[in-house]
Model the fold of this input.
Amino acid sequence: MPRCTALRAASTRRSRRGPPPGSPCRNPARPDLPADPWPRLVVACRHAALSVPPGTPGGGERGCRVAKVIGGMTISLDGFVADEHGDSGALYQDLAALHGTDYMDEMIAEAGAVVMGRRSFEMPEDPDTIADTYEFQVPLFVVTSHPPARHPRENDRLTFTFVTDGPESAVRQAKAAAGERAVQIVGGARLGTELLVAGLVDEVRVDVMPVFLGAGVRLFDDPRLAGVALERIGLTEVGQRVSLRFRVLR
Ligand SMILES: NC(=O)c1ccc[n+]([C@@H]2O[C@H](COP(=O)([O-])OP(=O)(O)OC[C@H]3O[C@@H](n4cnc5c(N)ncnc54)[C@H](OP(=O)(O)O)[C@@H]3O)[C@@H](O)[C@H]2O)c1
Done:
């Protein structure tokens, strides 16, 4: 359970007296206040999540949970995220089988917002199909210099925001939308790399499929990445894919 949610639950049991002294969710702007009504505290926590430096691992300045930014893609064994025609289908032959697995369910539950590059957004032929079919039914933020002429169809949970003032702005907006859940950077290679170089990614997830594409869109093809240090924090086998997780060290 997220820390602030746990604190809220505990405090509610204490008949709305608010958090105990020294609680990480106490309102720092009014330390004199003995009891802080929960709705304001939640706002304070959300504010903390937005105000801490991007990438602060695990928690904000008062220990409230910060939306983690996860950069995740699936690659071929020779390091491509799509073939030379921009098609990544060969890497997702297991997509139907993944539905309903713990791996997929946890990833979906964890995501509060998604950020993607314009080319990744253009993957489906008809963008109006995304709202009904996409696994991540959350607000989507598309980084682009030219939003589409017609806004794609949305639903109650999946909305589109076309962000024209850069990837950092997209991550900032996605964090605000995600609340205490994670921001998933789903691609593509260029956007994911830019955000990693910019220090805006907390965790890198790379799934490797036993497929050779020979040519195409290469992931992490940027010499600036030599300055990024990682620590492996997970390795899972999911059918044919090997799922690797790394924490970005700062
Ligand atoms: N294997 C996987 O898991 C996976 C997942 C997703 C996508 N893909 C594949 O990845 C390919 C797309 O990746 P990509 O690297 O070519 O493109 P991308 O990262 O999806 O999109 C790049 C576009 O984002 C916009 N952008 C604006 N500012 C940017 C910035 N500072 N940094 C990066 N992007 C910025 C630009 O759009 P404007 O031109 O509009 O300015 C740019 O052309 C597709 O072929 C797709 O099939 C694979």
